[in-house]
Specification:
Blueprint (H helix, E strand, L loop, with lengths): L2 H10 L4 E6 L4 H12 L13 H5 L1 H4 L5 E8 H4 L3 H18 L18 E2 L7 H7 L4 E2 L5 E2 L7 E8 L20 H5 L16 H5 L4 H4 L9 H4 L4
Length: about 230
């Protein structure tokens, strides 16, 4: 089983992009997240205080996890319920992998279908961090995942496999924001800056109705915004 073949099938099932990484514990992210939560910057999102080991190591979340397939869908292709759209695409991807007999290791089976192993904003999973490691984008000054081709108006989901996959060494992207500070200046609550996002000041976190830091981003300028606005 190789990453290129999986990425080809991912495109066929409707994903806008796809990357793969081997499962491991995210030590640096664990340190950052623990410090961020300790400062209270997560506001009322108390769930971030729980299930920390599951969040930092997918092998604790999914028994036998070896490979993480990260899928990306633009807002335009996600529909009204992006959770359902993303998960449907990932389950279809897994089905195709089985049909084409792309299996290896152990008993030759993919992750136990009785165990939850497809995620989209629905589990303690560091989705953006995995996407960056897979080379799917970088974290901008707006603290969003920015795909260099698709912009930041994207949703991320994961398919966790219990088989190893031949993966070319991904090349995580460092920030490509340069000297641009449009998002910081456009944030009505001044929640951005200091390389930290303060949820307590974020209008989107408070009311779910703010896209300023994305609409102003140069990486979204070429996107037809009327087609990519999320249903909120």
């Amino acid at each position: 089983m190789d990453a290129h073949t999986i990425q080809q099938i991912a495109a066929e099932v409707g994903l806008d992009d796809c990357g793969l990484v081997a499962a491991h514990r995210r030590e640096a992210d664990a340190t950052f997240m623990n410090d961020w939560v300790a400062k209270g910057l997560h506001g009322n999102m108390s769930y971030l205080e729980r299930n920390q080991e599951l969040r930092y190591d997918p092998r604790q979340l999914v028994t036998g996890a070896q490979t993480i397939v990260i899928g990306v869908l633009t807002y335009a292709h996600s529909g009204h319920d992006y959770h359902r759209t993303m998960k449907s695409a990932l389950y279809e991807l897994e089905k195709r992998l089985v049909e084409e007999d792309l299996r290896c290791g152990g008993n030759g089976k993919l992750t136990n279908e009785n165990q939850q192993h497809v995620f989209c904003d629905s589990a303690p999973f560091l989705e953006r961090a995995w996407a960056v490691e897979a080379g799917l984008g970088f974290i901008g000054k707006n603290h969003q995942l920015i795909h260099t081709r698709l912009g930041s108006m994207i949703h991320v989901g994961e398919l966790v496999l219990n088989v190893p996959v031949q993966i070319d060494s991904p090349h995580p992207l460092s920030s490509r924001c340069g000297s641009c500070t449009r998002c910081i200046e456009a944030c009505p609550g001044q929640a951005l800056g200091n390389q930290e996002w303060d949820a307590r000041k974020c209008v989107a976190y408070i009311t779910h109705h703010c896209l300023n830091c994305q609409l102003i981003c140069p990486y979204n300028e070429s996107i037809q915004r009327n087609e990519n606005r999320p249903c909120i």
